[in-house]
């Protein structure tokens, strides 16, 4: 007899900025009839200021503290698809919380493609440097091992459009309670 895993009560999307977490998250939540939450947008709503302003005033460390606090609160919700901030996996506490509370999906997109998606976006403080493509490469090298470690599912985001990713994830979620015998 096959062991049936309980369906996760949440789905967390992880990956670098520009990977499509928000676009895919909104569409997946709609398909599942769940609530969509973007952790970065939640931080902005709670503070009343933009992410770049938080970085400017509190630095990255201050932003990361806020990110951990918001994840702790939002992880208590159920039937949520959450787009997480790209650096959420840097804290071990966050990685553990993600793994314990839902299905974690890594949207794996190469730095060159991320650069094309984000190069005109001034709302990304970590990319306001002389060489944003190089910075994306550094971030990818640093974070990809954490994304892979925490992920239940890895999606090659370079080869799939948002609609096909949503279809794959919806099938993956549904198959958790109906494994093949």
Entry keywords:
5-stranded parallel β-sheet; Rossmann fold; 5 strands; 181 residues; alpha/beta
Give your account of this protein's structure.
The protein is an alpha/beta fold and 181 residues long. It has a single domain (10-172), classed as 3-Layer(aba) Sandwich (Rossmann fold). Helix content is 53%, strand content 13%. It has a 5-stranded parallel beta sheet, with helices on both faces. Helix 5 (111-118) crosses helix 6 (132-150). The longest helix has 24 residues, at 51-74. The chain is globular, with a radius of gyration of 16 Å. The N and C termini lie close together (7 Å). 34% of the residues are buried. Residues 1-5 have low confidence and may be disordered.
List the helices and strands and how they pair.
Blueprint lengths: L9 E5 L6 H12 L2 E4 H9 L3 H24 L5 E4 L8 H10 L1 E6 L2 H8 L13 H19 L2 E4 L5 H14 L6
Parallel strand pairs: 1-3, 1-4, 2-3, 4-5
Helix pairs in contact: 1-7, 2-3, 5-6
Would you identify the CATH architecture? 3-Layer(aba) Sandwich
Distance between the termini: 7 Å
Structural domain count: 1
Q: Any idea of the CATH class? A: Alpha Beta
Coarse morphology: globular
Q: Averaging pLDDT over every residue, what do you get?
A: 85
Strand content: 5-15%
Return Rg in Å: 16 Å
Largest sheet: 5 strands, parallel
Query: How many DSSP E strands?
Result: 5
Reading the helices and strands in chain order gives: EHEHHEHEHHEH
Q: Supply the CATH superfamily name.
A: P-loop containing nucleotide triphosphate hydrolases
Segments where pLDDT lies below 50 for 5+ residues?
A: 1-5
Total helical segments = 7
Structural class: alpha/beta
**Fraction in helix:** 40-55%
Strands side by side in the biggest sheet: 2-3-1-4-5
Query: What name does the CATH topology carry?
Result: Rossmann fold
């Amino acid at each position: 007899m096959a062991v049936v895993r309980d369906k996760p009560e949440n789905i967390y999307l992880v990956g670098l900025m520009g990977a499509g977490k928000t676009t895919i998250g909104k569409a997946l939540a709609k398909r599942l009839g769940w609530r969509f939450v973007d952790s970065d947008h939640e931080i902005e709503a709670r503070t009343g200021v933009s992410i770049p302003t938080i970085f400017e005033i509190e630095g990255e460390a201050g932003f990361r503290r806020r990110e951990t606090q918001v994840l702790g609160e939002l992880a208590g919700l159920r039937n949520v698809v959450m787009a997480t901030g790209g650096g959420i996996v840097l804290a071990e506490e966050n990685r553990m919380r993600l793994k314990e509370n839902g299905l974690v999906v890594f949207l794996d997109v190469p730095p060159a493609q991320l650069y094309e998606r984000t190069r005109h976006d001034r709302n990304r403080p970590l990319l306001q440097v002389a060489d944003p493509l190089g910075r994306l490469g550094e971030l990818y090298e640093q974070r990809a091992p954490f994304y892979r470690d925490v992920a239940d599912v890895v999606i090659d985001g370079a080869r799939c459009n948002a609609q096909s990713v949503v279809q794959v994830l919806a099938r993956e979620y549904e198959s958790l309670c109906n494994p093949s015998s």
